[in-house]
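chain below, 86 aa
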Amino acid sequence: MAIVNRLTVDGRDYFLPEPVSELKEQILAAIRAGGGYVNVPPLRGGPGIDILFSPGMPVTWSQIEVPDAAPAPSDGSTEPDSGFDI
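prediction:
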């Protein structure tokens, strides 16, 4: 199982890679300062997104367990390979 972090800001969900502790600190610092932009990294590669955080803005953190994906069959079928040839 893999853990994915979900940050919900004003009703919009952002899925984040680990670690998130530094990002949480940046968000708290921006809110304590009366507001500020924080760059939220993407789950996969890319520049991320700058979000303006301000006091009173609804922000929720959650963690989701995601099962590891099994590799797709190489023969084009949608059924998993049982390992037995028939």
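The mean pLDDT is 85. The helical segments are 21-32.
thats it, cya
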